[in-house]
Amino acid sequence: MQTSERRKTERSASFTVKSGLAQMLKGGVIMDVVSVEHAVIAEEAGAVAVMALERVPADIRAQGGVARMSDPGLIREIMSAVSIPVMAKCRIGHFVEAQILEAIGVDYVDESEVLTPADEAHHIDKHGFGVPFVCGCRNLGEALRRIGEGAAMIRTKGEAGTGDVVEAVRHARTVLGEIRSLASMPDEELMSFAKGLGAPYELVKQTKAAGRLPVVNFAAGGIATPADAALMMQLGVDGVFVGSGIFKSSEPAKRAKAIVQATTHFRNPGMLAELSTHLGEPMSGISAAGLTEDQRLAGRGW
Amino acid sequence: MNRDLDVEREAGLDIGVLALQGAFIEHIHRLTELQAAAREVRLPQDLEGLDGLILPGGESTAIAKLMAGCGLVAPIRRFAERHAVWGTCAGMILLADDIGPEPPVLGLMDIVVERNAFGRQIDSFEEPLYVEGLEEGAGRAFPGIFIRAPRLMAVRPPARVIVRLADGTAVGARQGRLLATAFHPELTRDLRFHRYFLDMVRS
After folding, report:
1. Least CB-packed of A71, A145, A297, B26 within 10 Å?
2. Topology (CATH) of B3-202
3. What is the pLDDT of residues A176-211, one digit of tens each?
4. Is residue A150 classed as helix, strand or coil in its secondary structure?
5. Which residues of A touch B29 (CB under 8 A)?
6. ipTM of the shown complex
7. Taking CB atoms and an 8 Å limit, are A14 and B126 in contact across chains?
8. Is position A89 annotated as part of the catalytic site?
């Protein structure tokens, strides 16, 4: 932890600048890319950031085996090809992968359930890093535990690599619904509520006061069409991650641009109709309801 | 300082915030705290009836493409001929007439801007700023928040530098009714910069 210990004392490590970058990404689309060519298409389409990976979640799912951090060489190539922020994934609890990603200078680390977890009880202590982290959640308790560990951005998990939006909807509704009930809760009930969620009390109080998560919250996992992106935005998330949905479709450049515009004009059905027209084949997808328990990625995380 | 009077005098102003992507809600919150009416701008018709416009922080490449996509470039240029416009971070890049190898977006200010001038996210930082012309500007530091920030490489008259980092780097400029800052006053609870802009709108 030598690097991050040193960085703590430098001017770069404040939580304001870590969560501030996520605030700048709001209303935007973050796209999974596996090559420089993909990254350039994503930037050209108006992505606000790219997630540099060796395999998109649909391929991780299809190929099986252990999924790890990508080759730093590939991540560096993508970083030098685009001017937008570049994110990369490390395994849950694998703080050395995170140190490596910080050392090569990625803009955000995603401690992600899409990769095979390295620790079955603990996530990374994210406070110790200068690079900000985004983490997945299925409910408010999980979101606040991650923020408690230092995550500067949250994404609802959905079910990555399926092209089925149902789990993304379930997780967004759960988190946002729990915040709505918290907002009307009398203060004397907050400790018991925090206990029930397994969430830090101070963060529960902050969430109640703000009426929203203390950090930016994107949706992820199964978004494949402009309508899917607009659906998540209307439900109340701050932006969307699109993983396999773009580069597993028949016309990635066109679809990427349409999803970016749909995320901006999410309340304009007339524009959404135009944006959804003649996009070619979407990714074929698999029904999330048909997955067995061990095929579900969203259950990873503690 | 009479706070009530300050708040009172902002009433009646209609300020638009470009809401294509980025930190627009933060600007809206700061404006609302000053009793100005704030409105999201997504399409050219949203500019009608506004007294001023803020171009927020976000990803400048994404915002530029979205602006072109919904036909907002020319309407904003026309709007700026008669009204005050303020760009923060990405908004400063949109206002500049020179952003390096790529063509300028709005090209309204005589400034040369370098994108991501301080490096990547790990190099983002906070620094107190002393701002010329800001209320108590010389005596009370303004919290400067720089996130993958741009900087001013050159500022040509009639544009002039209004704020520099301690090392002399220019990070804010004004040109008549146009204002550009490389940092994010909308992420702070200090309302002085928003009040400064509302004064520009009024004059």
Report:
1. A71
2. Rossmann fold (3.40.50)
3. 999 999 999 999 999 999 999 999 999 999 999 999
4. coil
5. none
6. 0.93
7. yes
8. yes
